[in-house]
Amino acid sequence: MPRKRPGRVRTKNTNRREALRLSRMAPEDFNVRPGETKSIACPDCCTWRRIMGDTVLKIREHCISDKVADGEKYASCPGSDQLVVIDIDVRRWQARQDRLLRDAMPQENRRAAQQFHKPLPAPATPVSRIKAEITLETARQSYLAHRKGCTRCVGGQHCTDGGVLARRYVLALQEEPARREAREEQERQERHTARKQTAPAVRKAQWAKHGGKAVETANNRCAGRIPGSLSEFRGPQLPLAPKDVEAYERRQAELGKQYAQRKPATTSAA
Question: Which residues span the domain enclosing 93?
Answer without folding.
Answer: 20-97
